[in-house]
Automatic annotation (TrEMBL):
UniProt keyword list: Signal
Source taxon at top rank: Bacteria
Naturally occurring in which organism (per UniProt): Rubrivirga litoralis
Name used for this protein in its record: Copper resistance protein B
InterPro entries: Autotransporte_beta_dom_sf, Cu-R_B_prcur
Cleaved signal peptide residues: 1-19
Organism classification: Bacteria, Pseudomonadati, Rhodothermota, Rhodothermia, Rhodothermales
Length: 262
């Protein structure tokens, strides 16, 4: 009987002893909270200032069945932070067999103005070569680049030459993922001008529309061979200028190429 009374007293005293345990003992026994180095004041601002770069060779292709074997190269290099970047853009096309063609290069400052769009401004230089001659045409360039609703990539741009000639361009493309590695990319480009510049094959109004459809397979994310079709049609004064110079007013090609980035 005395043993039962002693056990009952001990059980009754246990909750009271626990209630009188100092608070510090409970905190000492608690598991430590993990320390994350990014969870600190100013971490987001510091991440925004990190320097990123990207080199993309978007088009590197030939049309073997075309007269003169048309070839085309297009890509860019960019470097900067999330808000401010510098772009170096270049594209060129020509006839491999005849050794003639043209190159367009742009140097642009880019600033993020919304969640999905960057405003860009800089210089554009057009160069044409053939028959041992080279000529150039500098222009100012302003525009936007970004992601429109439904994931369309768009690039509207306005150009002003050193003579005050004004032209505009609208580019758009969309990546349709057929599988995780097979991507179908339709794209379109529209060129317009306010003034006629016959020496450069530019007419007033709508000049040309180019439409392409390319199917690429990403062997790795950075390496993707592709096959596709490209169609270009000139309109209005640009159509008349091309015909007067003996150039085609409408062209369609089957192209084979490679897309690279790092």
């Amino acid at each position: 009987m005395p043993r039962r009374l002693a056990l009952a007293a001990l059980l009754a005293a246990a909750p009271l002893a626990a209630a009188q345990t100092p608070e510090g003992d409970g905190e000492a026994n608690a598991p430590p909270f993990p320390e994350y180095p990014d969870f600190r004041p100013g971490a987001v601002a510091a991440a925004d200032q990190k320097l990123y770069s990207l080199a993309l060779l978007d088009l590197f292709e030939v049309a073997p069945a075309g007269a003169g074997v048309p070839a085309r190269v297009e890509g860019f290099y960019r470097i900067g932070t999330d808000y401010n970047k510098v772009y170096l853009k270049a594209e060129g096309e020509g006839l491999v067999a005849e050794g003639e063609g043209g190159v367009e290069a742009q140097v642009l400052y880019s600033r993020l103005v919304t969640e999905y769009f960057e405003a860009q401004a800089g210089l554009r230089l057009d160069t044409e070569f053939g028959d041992g001659d080279v000529r150039a045409r500098p222009q100012l360039a302003v525009g936007l680049e970004g992601l429109a609703p439904y994931f369309f990539e768009v690039e509207p741009a306005l150009f002003v030459s050193y003579k005050g000639d004004v032209s505009a361009r609208l580019e758009g493309s969309y990546d349709l993922l057929l599988t995780q590695r097979l991507v179908l990319q339709p794209e379109a480009e529209v060129n317009l001008a306010v003034q006629r510049v016959e020496d450069w094959g530019v007419g007033t109004g709508l000049n040309d529309i180019e439409v392409g459809l390319r199917l690429r397979y990403e062997i790795q994310r950075e390496v993707a061979p592709y096959v596709g079709v490209s169609w270009l049609n000139r309109f209005g004064e640009a159509h008349d200028i091309a015909r007067a110079e003996g150039e085609p007013t409408s062209e369609a090609f089957v192209v084979f190429g490679l897309r690279l980035w790092r």
